[in-house]
Design a protein that fits this description.
Layout (H helix, E strand, L loop, with lengths): L4 E3 L11 H9 L6 H8 L3 E4 L4 E4 L5 H4 L3 E7 L10 H11 L3 E7 L15 E10 L4 E9 L2 E8 H9 L5 E7 L9 H12 L16 E2 H15 L6 H10 L1
Antiparallel strand pairs: 1-6, 2-3, 2-10, 4-9, 5-6, 5-9, 6-7, 7-8
Length: 246
């Protein structure tokens, strides 16, 4: 029997400051121990000065360190070429194998995006389903006024939005089963101390930079600079703080 529509699991997010955090915690919302892993590892924040933004202090991106995920990086050359619908076929085949797909699109071609027909802007989005009869792709991104939403887009929109991007990388994510996870209390305590004393958590993190500001010092820096940034205040900072408190 040919599958004409398939949607992979998407639940409530735990962290939604960036789409990679939001997507991963949404994918894994049906796994109870994920929250404990987040409490253990995502305690402190830091200010990444070169990009003027706030992130969780982590060893590497969540998609590559979460014990319940397998992540596979591909390029456009891994996708069968020779037909205009190659990316659509790739998405459908991946979803049929229970793989979530992250790829970069140009939002100029996505009708629900703020940038639609106004400016060219490349951004990654996560795809979790398709409908062959209605020719729809189901995706997840902070595509509308910075809010993370589930939305649908036509095959043609996704095809056109993907065709013009320079970023060749595609990420496939699958869930692992039978993960033997044990909550590391000592690690969580150390991360809390690092937050309180403004120390970088993973010393070997690829984010490390002499100009970064960590933990409580990052909170103080944000507060001291609020007046200078209005009305362009980065609300993601408040999402980080809310995630830590909760």
């Amino acid at each position: 029997m040919i599958c004409t529509k398939k949607l992979l699991h998407m639940g409530n997010t735990v962290i939604n400051s960036y789409n990679n955090y939001a997507a991963v915690t949404s994918f894994l919302s049906d796994i109870e121990n994920v929250r404990f892993w987040l409490y253990e590892n995502y305690v402190s924040i830091f200010y990444l000065e070169p990009y003027k933004t706030y992130l969780f202090d982590e060893l590497k991106p969540m998609v590559f360190c979460c014990p319940w995920l397998n992540a596979k990086v591909l390029t456009k050359t891994n996708i069968k070429t020779g037909c205009d619908d190659s990316i659509l076929n790739f998405i459908v085949n991946s979803i049929n194998q229970d793989m979530y797909v992250e790829l970069t699109v140009n939002r100029y071609f996505i009708p629900i995006a703020n940038e639609y027909k106004t400016r060219h802007y490349d951004h990654s989005l996560f795809i979790y389903g398709y409908d062959l009869n209605d020719k729809l792709i189901y995706a997840y991104d902070n595509i509308r006024h910075g809010k993370f939403i589930l939305f649908e887009s036509t095959f043609d929109d996704i095809k056109n939005a993907y065709a013009v991007v320079d970023n060749p990388y595609i990420l496939l994510l699958t869930k692992k089963s039978n993960v033997n996870y044990v909550f590391n209390v000592a690690k969580m305590k150390q991360n809390i101390n690092n937050y309180i004393y403004s120390a970088p958590t993973p010393k070997e993190s690829y984010y490390n930079n002499d100009t970064n500001i960590y933990g409580v010092d990052a909170v103080k820096y944000f507060i001291s600079s609020m007046g200078n940034n209005l009305p362009y205040l980065d609300i993601r900072f408040f999402i980080y703080i809310g995630s830590i408190i909760n």
